[in-house]
Structures are given as C-alpha cells and as structure tokens.
Specification:
two-stranded antiparallel sheet, alpha+beta, single chain, 25% helix, 6-stranded antiparallel beta sheet, disordered N terminus, 8 helices, 240 residues
Length: 240
Amino acid sequence: MSPSPNTREIRNRRVLVFAGIAAAVLAAGGAAIAWATVQAGADEAAADGAAVTMSGPGGGAGRDVSQADIEAADFSAYSDGVAAQLTYAAEHWTDSESDTYGYVDENDCVNFTSQTLLARGWAEDDEWWFDESGDPYSHADAWISSTAMHDYLEEHPERATALTDDERSSVEVGDVVQFDWDDSGDRDHTGVVTSVETNADGSVTILYAGHTDPTWDRSVDWAITELHPGGVAYYWSIPE
C-alpha cells in the first residue's frame, strides 16, 4: 500500500530563517540535558558535529553544545526502554539519510519518531511497520504520517493514551508530542519528549526532539507561540 503522509508537514518545514530568535535555556529534568534548539540555520553545523548555539525566550545568552555532548548524555535514570529511546534520538536527531529507514525529504518527523519507539521496544504490527528496503514511501502510513499516527494510536489505547496541553503534568520523558499548527484538527508535526520541568509557579515546560529541521530539546511553548503562533500541542502518554 502506498502511504499518503500529511502534506501540511511538508509545507511547514524549514520556514525558519536563521536569526537571533530567543528561546529558554532550561535546567535538565532527571538525567536529561535541557536546552532549547531554536536555530534552523544551525542544521549543517549540528550535522557536522560543530557547536550549536541555543538561547532562550527570556533573552538568555544561551550556551554552546556539540553533538558529542548530546550523545554523551546519561539517560540511566530512566527505564531501560526510555533510555534506549533517548539514546537513539540523541544519536540520530541530525540524520538526513538512513539505509534502514530512508529519509522523507522535508517530512521525516514521524519516520524518526517511529524509529525511536522501535528502539524503545515497540514491536511492528499490521498497521505500524517499516519496509526493510529502506524506501520510506513503502512504510505504513502510521509510520510516516502525523495524522495517520494519531489515528493509529487513537485506535490502540494499549500503546498510548491521549493527553491535551492542559494535561502537561501527566506528560513524561519519552512520550510523543504532536502539533496542529493551524488548529484545524489534523496533526502537522511529531516529536519525542526529552524533558519535562515543573517551574516554581507550577507551570510545566516541555522540550522535545525531532526531524525534519534537526531539533533537540526545543521548547513546546516556543514552537506554538513563535514558530507557529496559534498552534496547539497534544501528547501521547506511553506506558512502560
């Protein structure tokens, strides 16, 4: 069957111009590193292992980190499955090709998220699977399309439970975050939660990793207020 990934994911990739955009530099939750990757122009530098400068919504100076620093992060405080998922994400968030999974040009976010879930221990089934040929367009719809993944998870509560952005306190590292950039009801982007922080005022800050512009510890709040103002975030809580 030929998959039909959500075309809005394609239209909304790479809309950032490399500029001095501020996003919050946040303290790590548990064993996770926490900082906001908000420079679309840093894609090539990150892929080459060069330092990536990140700054925060409060106008913070940010800090320099390298891909080596991310890969060296200690995720041992999490369960084995989540640790394996985060380790995979840390090692592959800048990838733009894969012999095993392929790469969906400008639309690889769900392909990448699915890979992290496989690394976590999920087993393929009749609706969620990848083609071993490495051709991403031969994968199941739920493997490569945000809306198809939403529909799949909605039909499989044993795999994940839906949460709204008002239920952030229930979100955990390793959960899936999905975005509806224009609040139209479909899903336009998907990532993996890398940090959940409860702030002094009781608010919760969530960071995530993903493709297609390489993203590590990007702020959900920044994504729905600055990157796509008016966007809505949703989550899938994944049981151990």
